[in-house]
Amino acid sequence: MGFPRLWAALLRAWGRWTACPGPRVPGLPPMAANKVPPALASHQPDRKVRGGWVWEETQHPPKRIKGGEDEEAPRKLPKRKIVLLMAYSGKGYHGMQGVSAAGQVVSLKVWLIDDILDKINSHLPSNIRILGLKRVTGGFNSKNKCDARTYCYMLPTFAFAHKDRDVQDESYRLSAETLQQVNRLLACYKGTHNFHNFTSQKGPKEPSARRYILEMYCEEPFVREGLEFAVIKVKGQSFMMHQIRKMVGLVVAIVKGYAPESVLERSWGEEKVDVPKAPGLGLVLERVHFEKYNQRFGSDGLHEPLDWAQEEGKVAAFKEQHIYPTIVSTERDERSMAQWLSTLPIHNFNATARGAAGTGAKVPSSLEGSEGDGDTD
C-alpha cells in the first residue's frame, strides 16, 4: 500500500462532504446544495466509478439572468492551509521514506469540515492514522520548514552481546556497564561530522555530506514476549539515506568487539571506510521539529505552535498497538537482526571499503530491508 491510499481517504472525506457546489436545489439555501435530503435525492447528479475512484458528475449551473431571482450563485468554501500529524506502520505502507512513523507531518490546503479527522480515518486502515490537525500560515511547507527530525531505532539487546556469545541468545540482558559504553559511543556522533561513509554516492569533499547531530542515546531496556529490546534515539538537522542504520551498525560492531573504537574517528575522515548497515526493521520516525516556525508564529495569537503536546497520548498508544508489536513479531519470525549480526565477521574494519569488497563478501540482499531514513535536504 502506497501514499495514494492516504490521498484517496482525503479525497473521499472532503469530496463527499465539501465538493464544489453543484446546481441549486429548489427550496434550499445556496450553501445547502451539497447536503440534499433523501426526499430530494433525485436532484443529485449521478455518481460513477472510474478506475477505482468515485466521481460525481456535476452539471453546469444555469446562466444567471441579470435582475432575475436566480442571480445569486452559491459561494465556494475557502480552503485553509493545515498540517496533519500522521502515524503508520511501515510493515505494509511504503509511501514516505519506507520506515514506520509515529509523528510524520504533512501540509496541505483543505476545506475545514466538521469531524474532519474522524471522516479521514474512516477511510484508512487501522495501521495508518491521522492523529492531529493544526492551522498554519499560508506559505507553510512541512518539508522546507523542518528544523530537525528525531528517529528511534528499536533493536533486541542481544545485538550488544560480545561476539563470543551466541548470536541470538534470548536470555541475554543488557548490563548497566554495557549500556554506559553504548551511550558513550553514541555521544561521539554529536556535533558536525562528515558522514560520507554512512551513505552511498557521497564523496568526502561534498559539503552535503556534513551533517549536524544534536543528540543520540540509548534508553533503558525493556522486555517484550520474553525478548529484551532497547530504543536508540537520534535527533539531527537532516539525515542521508541509510545514515542512521549505519551509525547504529558501527556502534554495534564496536561493542561486540569486531571493530576498534578508533574506527569512529576514521570514518569521518576522507578515507573510505567499510561501515555495516543495520537492518531497517526497527527504524521509526519519532518527531518532526519546527522550532524556528514556533518562535515566529507559535505565540502570535493567530497560530498554534507545532509541538503536538496534546497528541502525545495518541502517539504513544499507536506505537504500543501497531509499531512495537510489528517490530517484535517480525524480528521473531524473520530474525533480521540475528542474520545481520552473523555477517559482521566478514567486514574488514581495518581496510577501506574497496579492499573489503575485493574479498567477495556480500550481505544477502534479503537483509537489506527498506530504504530507512531518506535524504531530507
Features:
about 375 residues, two-stranded antiparallel sheet, 9 helices, globular, TruA/RsuA/RluB/E/F_N, isomerase, signal, PsdUridine_synth_TruA_C
How would you describe the overall organization of this protein?
- The structure is a single chain.
- With 377 residues, the protein is α+β, with helices and mostly antiparallel strands.
- 25% of the residues lie in helices and 21% in strands.
- It has helices at 4-17, 116-121, 176-187, 243-256, 262-267, 291-297, 312-334, 336-341, 353-357, and strands at 47-50, 53-56, 80-88, 100-110, 128-135, 148-156, 191-194, 210-218, 222-224, 227-236, 283-289.
- The strands form 2 sheets. Strands 3, 4, 5, 6, 7, 8, 9, 10 and 11 form a 9-stranded mixed β-sheet that branches.
- Helix 3 (176-187) crosses helix 4 (243-256).
- It is globular.
- The model is unreliable at 16-58 and 353-373 (pLDDT under 50).
In this structure, how is the largest beta sheet organized?
9 strands, mixed
Count of DSSP H/I helices: 9
CA(first)-CA(last) distance: 25 Å
Structural class based on helices, strands and sheet pairing? alpha+beta
What is the count of β-strands? Answer: 11
Protein name: tRNA pseudouridine synthase A isoform X3
Region (Disordered): 356-377
Pfam family, one: PseudoU_synth_1
InterPro entries: PsdUridine_synth_cat_dom_sf, PsdUridine_synth_TruA, PsdUridine_synth_TruA_a/b_dom, PsdUridine_synth_TruA_C, PUS1/PUS2-like, TruA/RsuA/RluB/E/F_N
What is the topological layout?
Blueprint: H1 4-17, E1 47-50, E2 53-56, E3 80-88, E4 100-110, H2 116-121, E5 128-135, E6 148-156, H3 176-187, E7 191-194, E8 210-218, E9 222-224, E10 227-236, H4 243-256, H5 262-267, E11 283-289, H6 291-297, H7 312-334, H8 336-341, H9 353-357
Helix pairs in contact: 3-4
